[in-house]
Amino acid sequence: MDNEKEAPPALSTGAPHMLTELWAAKTLDNPELAETAIRKAIRTARATQLHLHAHKFCAGHGVAAIAWSAESRMTLHTWPESSYAAADVFVCGDSDPANAAPVLVDAFQPERSDVRRFRRGVSSKPTG
After folding, report:
1. Are 8 and 67 spatial neighbours (Cβ–Cβ below 8 Å)?
2. Has 92 been annotated as catalytic?
3. CA distance 32 to 39
4. DSSP 11-76
């Protein structure tokens, strides 16, 4: 784009964003467990929870949950019919989203998990 040089990076140091996938996980249709796991994950990531909402879909289907924090947000989506869950934690400041993944692994006991870290708000193109 022509205006890329004019646009400053969104954040001076970037903000960490963790994506966690859980395969062959257990108890993925329980909204109370999802809420408890998210509350603990947010606290363990050293973030400040503001609001939390979990929605249970019809019988045999999963849960969608989101927690807003002062530092950003965490989401969790489960597919019990596939024994799969996906979560993401995006934070800024001194929070560490990497601390959330072990909490989710402990809560849902997957046979396999994958955690990926990204830096959001960092421009790979020079500015100015």
Report:
1. no
2. yes
3. 11
4. SSS-EEEEEEEEES-S-TT-HHHHHHHHHHHHHHTT--EEEEEEEE-STT--EEEEEEETTEEEEE
For residue 53, indicate whether it is catalytic.
no
Per residue in 20-62, pLDDT tens? 999 999 999 999 999 999 999 999 999 999 999 999 998 889 9
Residue from 96, 69, 74 nearest 87 by CA: 74
Beta-bridge partners for 63: 56
Which residue in 30, 19, 39, 18 sits closest to 78, CA to CA? 30
Respond yes or no: is residue 77 known to be catalytic.
yes
- The identity of residue 65, as a single letter, is A
Q: Which of 12, 17, 58, 77 is catalytic?
A: 77
Task: Exactly one of 17, 69, 92, 113 is catalytic; name it.
Answer: 92
| Nearest in space to 22 (alpha carbons), one of 85, 107, 75 | 85
Q: Which of 39, 106, 49 shows the shortest CA–CA distance to 73?
A: 49
